[in-house]
Amino acid sequence: MTARKIKKRMTKDERMRHIVDAASMLFAKNGFKGTTTREIAKKAGISEAVIFKHFSKKEALYSAIIDSRCNDTAGHSRLMKILEGKSGKDVFYEVANFLITEHQEDPSFLRLLTFSALEGHNLSDIFIKTKGMELIEFLAGHIKELVNKKLFRRVEPIIAARAFMGMVLHYSISQEIYGLKKYFKMSNDYVIDTFVDIFFNGMERH
């Protein structure tokens, strides 16, 4: 008698992660508006009823995707944990390294965020008001400290923080979405070191 292969039953957390992964792939491919819960259910191999058992509406999936991509298992920001205890150039290096590496290894989240912004859906505000502003304000605070120590020239910290983020994010978008990586193949370390040097050379008091 042939033994039957018993399929392991997913736990609640595993099922939710499975749904979030399926939704993330489809949102990145078709946009939030272009993806239905029926398509997510089909991708996940479940019924729509199972989705709504865990997520009250489609918008809740978007928030769950942000949490799954940005937070650790304890619900803390992965990037902010990396930045704990860092100072000077190390702060900017770690920010650039985290973002460029994450987007390079899996550009789907970058595509998802871009889709949301282009669709004009208020869901893009969820990311900006939480993770986006958290990082910009952190960098601005660090820049302000360097200005007060007279290591940086006097400048509006928020604008300086956005200038640095602009370099990093434009690089990731042009590489992973516009396809520039086919023609631009320098090492991440070299690119990141160059960005940090450009920023510090422009900000340091002379």
Which terms summarize this structure?
single chain; 70% helix; mainly alpha; 206 residues; 10 helices; 0% strand
Structure description:
This protein is an all-alpha fold. The chain is built from 10 helices and no strands. It has helices at 12-30, 37-44, 48-54, 58-70, 78-83, 89-105, 108-119, 123-148, 157-176, 188-203. The radius of gyration is 20 Å and the shape is elongated. The model is unreliable at 1-7 (pLDDT under 50).
Give the gist of this structure.
The protein has 206 residues and is mostly helical.
What is the radius of gyration computed over CA atoms, rounded to a whole number of angstroms?
20 Å
Q: Summarize the amount of helix as a percent range.
A: 55-70%
State the distance separating the first and last CA atoms. Answer: 83 Å
In the predicted model, the low-confidence regions spanning at least 5 consecutive residues are 1-7
Number of strands: 0
Strand content: under 5%
What is the N-to-C order of secondary-structure elements (H for helix, E for strand)?
Answer: HHHHHHHHHH
The helix-and-strand class reads mainly alpha
Q: Work out the helix count.
A: 10
Q: Sum up the overall morphology in one term.
A: elongated
Largest sheet: none
Mean pLDDT: 88
